[in-house]
Amino acid sequence: MWVFTQIHCICNFKIYYLYKSTVSSNSEILYLVFIIGFVFFVVFIPSKSNRFCFFWNFYALRTLIFHLFLIRKNHYIINMPPKIRSFFPAALTAISVLFSQNLAAQDSAASLFDGENLSYFESFEAALTAAAEIPSAFDPPIEITLFKDTILDAPLIINDNSHLRLLPGGADRTIKRGSSLIEYPLIWLSGDSASLTLGKPGMEHELFIDGGCLNDPPVYAECPLVNVCGPDSKLIMYDNVTLQNNYNGGDGAHNSYYQLGGGVYIRTAGDLNERQAEFIMKGGTIRGNFNNVQNYMACGGGLLIAGFGVFTMEDGAIMDNTAQFNGGGVHSGGRGTFRKTGGTIYGSNAPQGFRNTALNGPAQRKFPQIYGHAVSVTVSGPKYWFRDNTVIEDDNLSYSNRGALRAENYLGANDAFGKGEKWNTSGRVFWSMILIIILIVLALFIAAFNIVRFYFNRRFQKIQREYEPVKIDYEGLGFTPREREICELLLTEIPIKNIPVTLSVSKSTVNFHTRNLYRKLNIQSRTELFVKLGTLKNKK
What we know:
The structure is a single chain. The chain is an alpha/beta fold. The protein folds into three domains: 2-105; 141-422; 467-533, Winged helix-like DNA-binding domain superfamily/Winged helix DNA-binding domain (Arc Repressor Mutant, subunit A, Orthogonal Bundle). The protein is built from twelve helices and 31 strands. The chain has an eleven-stranded mixed β-sheet. A nine-stranded mixed β-sheet has the order 5-8-11-15-19-23-27-28-31. It has a seven-stranded parallel β-sheet with strand order 4-7-10-13-17-21-25, with no helix packed on it. A hairpin with a 4-residue loop joins strand 1 (110-113) and strand 2 (118-121). Helix 1 (2-20) packs antiparallel against helix 2 and helix 9 (481-490) packs across helix 11 (507-521). The longest helix has 41 residues, at 426-466. The protein is rod-shaped, with a radius of gyration of 44 Å. The model is unreliable at 1-28, 42-57, 67-76, 403-415 and 535-540 (pLDDT under 50).
């Protein structure tokens, strides 16, 4: 590369010598400064590939233009007024730089813009390293534009007081979890008072942050895709940004500050001084994430909010996420705070591919009910508030944690839900289930009673068809009406056990009246009854 630079400098001075005979003295000084500046830029530009692109493009373009237009005496540029002609090298320089930057962008993996200077880098990691050394502010942050898809084998860590914005350049871009990045989030916002902005308003191309669980072979991590845990840290996401396809299947012996959750996990590390970590979702999508961590916090497939974490959803969609327990889309722990003023959180009534799913009920309950497919919140008890069906765009939800002091400034009160919001509760579900069970048992009892009644009615009708009571003159016997009915049936071939069914009375009632009529006739058995009354069988 140095040899090419030396040859280029020699050619520069050759052209300068020829150019000197055709331009004014002011142009000579301007062109000399231009040559020196170019050589300095070539030598000290940070990227070798960018240096080559700049050198080749500038040299070819400028040399061609000078040989075709300036050196030839008969060209009209030579006859221009000196003042106009003296600015011609500067114009060529600007054009060359523009073309050089385009070629540099095509050859580079990322660029960095700190508000004043634009630099190009051969790798995304190199751009991140350079950004970490530059003092930054929250507004505007340092912008890193990604020109190539990249796979990270180390977490993208946002350190103390760092402020970055990630953008796709030229086309849709993807940042994907590498197969060796298992124990840490792909994006780890751990710095004190740090911020990360994904995308910007009106962004044309899409930026994907991918956990790799759909890779071949898949990447099964032991942590969330994105973690926001730095005290007073902030994550902001815009439209055309997607956080997707992360599987957290950790063994449960996890660091609870950065290794829980499926898609995004928000919790201040150490819960220091109740300083909050915040995620503001202004657009974009959280989808295809699965929280299957092997402990009771396998909640919140798309988003999990815990100690002094704050989530604000203004727009976007949370969809097709799965939690092993409750909160398929979003789950907030007892000290989490969130507010939804827009966007959609899909629930159990959404089509396949959109609905968030809770596979089981809460781990703390012995006989858990499955609920909270869209959203669930842990209140003291444990008691759960939840939404199963899709929470549509104009359906606002909010919950203010009971521990964070600043929650009062955020939503108005601690341990409180917004007024007029539609929630279901686990207690309400419990008593509803008890009532449903009672009603089901009662319905089964009524159905069984009717079946038995129907059966005996059919038996009675059959008995009535088979037997006809004997007609006897009972004058002078002193029988009561019931004794007469029983006596008439005893004088037929009807089994004695069927008499209570026939008369719709109890067995003890039949026995009682049977003894009375035997006493009045001074007999002891049914056989003697036939002999006494001299009755023949009267079967139809």
